[in-house]
Amino acid sequence: MNTEFLNVFFNREKVAGPDTEVTKTFAARCHCGNVQFTVTLPAASLPLNGYICSCTMCRYTHGTLGSFHTALPQGVAPEWTNGNINLAIYKTQGSGRGGHGQRWFCPTCGAHNGHYEPWAMQWIVDISLFDETFWNMAGFGFPKSPGDGGLLSWLGSRKLNQASFDSDSPPEYHLETGANGEERLRAECLCGGVSLTIPRPSDAMKQDKHIGRFVAPGKSRKWKAFLDFGQEIRSLTSAHFMPWVVIPRVVLEPKVPPNLAIGTIKTYQVSDKITKGFCGRCGATVFLRHGDGRGSGCNESEVLNIAMGILRAPEGAKAENWFSWRAAEPTQAEDPTNFDVEFMGAVIEGQRKWLLEKYGELPDFDIL
């Protein structure tokens, strides 16, 4: 590991100065409050470097286009503040002693909170859970893994230090064929406990008065995709923002019942109208079901948000052959807490620029 990599991704240059008594404490919590912790840092070390990791492990365990992390300086550890440490731990294939290859998440709401990296002797925390920004986004890991640039292609104006490794290459995926002979796209979490396929929208689906609302405009056979910058989404998914695709529940194979009980899915009641479905084994966000305007939860017209990060599209992580992206609006970066405003604005600006350069337009369509 060279010095630049350790400085950018592991904050090795962020050592305490001569005055170590001046500190600042920052609080984090998952959506349900089961996981709550603080980190106390020397003021002289701030801001820390944050980074995005877009390796397959992070994408398929979070359901996002990348995980948002910072490495706490050596000797700094989270302090659990709600009286207990109730975490689900997923040990990936090849995980070793001391925490390497493990992913920790809340067993109630599914939000990831980080892990310990024994070779570095440092804690890695999911920064989207914090209520205050104490980092500057500086690094991007595994840029080749998404296959199509992934989130990095939306960060043209925000230069990040990139770290690539021998294992940084896109997986090879192939489209599948359903019972009717039509192409289908696989969606699967890292552990494989939740696995299903999505069809292309047919002419009949386009003409259906309910399902047709979720087919992207135009002649192409694509569904709709969008970025969710809602403040609540951070504590729910451990991501600064969430890339969703909207799919009618009835077209999924195998069939997903109204209670979302498929494979290793666990459900969490976000509110009276919203239910999250996540893998109870690896913690991947899979579904978000709305109880308003998308069906009653039991009828054939119900539509689900499905996490973009678990899709296995041959063309890459953004699955452009299957989905049309709605252009994010600059106002979506506005947040009363001023959470990482500069970076969020850069993502929105970058996504809009990417859409204009690649498709010549800024698609604006309804999601509900």
Describe the SSE topology.
Layout: H1 3-10, E1 23-29, E2 36-42, E3 48-53, H2 56-62, E4 67-71, E5 79-80, E6 88-91, E7 102-105, E8 112-117, E9 122-126, E10 135-141, E11 161-163, E12 176-177, E13 183-188, E14 195-199, H3 203-207, E15 223-228, H4 231-237, E16 242-248, E17 265-269, E18 274-279, E19 285-290, E20 303-307, E21 323-325, H5 341-359
Parallel strand pairs: 3-10, 10-11, 15-21
Antiparallel strand pairs: 1-2, 2-5, 3-4, 4-9, 6-7, 7-8, 8-9, 12-13, 13-14, 15-16, 16-20, 17-18, 18-19, 19-20
Overall geometry: globular
Quaternary status of these chains? single chain
The poorly predicted ranges are 293-298
Encode the helix/strand succession as letters. HEEEHEEEEEEEEEEEHEHEEEEEEH
Number of E strands: 21
Number of helices: 5
- The helix/strand class is alpha+beta
Please state the average pLDDT score: 90
Largest sheet: 8 strands, mixed
Residue fraction in strands: 25-35%
Strand order, largest beta sheet: 6-7-8-9-4-3-10-11
The rounded distance between the terminal residues' Cα atoms is: 47 Å
Q: Helicity, in percent? A: 10-25%
What is the rounded Rg? 20 Å
Give a short overview.
By secondary structure, the protein is α+β, with helices and mostly antiparallel strands. It has helices at 3-10, 56-62, 203-207, 231-237, 341-359; strands spanning 23-29, 36-42, 48-53, 67-71, 79-80, 88-91, 102-105, 112-117, 122-126, 135-141, 161-163, 176-177, 183-188, 195-199, 223-228, 242-248, 265-269, 274-279, 285-290, 303-307, 323-325. An 8-stranded mixed β-sheet has the order 6-7-8-9-4-3-10-11. It has a 7-stranded mixed β-sheet with strand order 17-18-19-20-16-15-21. Strands 1-2-5 form a 3-stranded antiparallel β-sheet, with no helix packed on it.
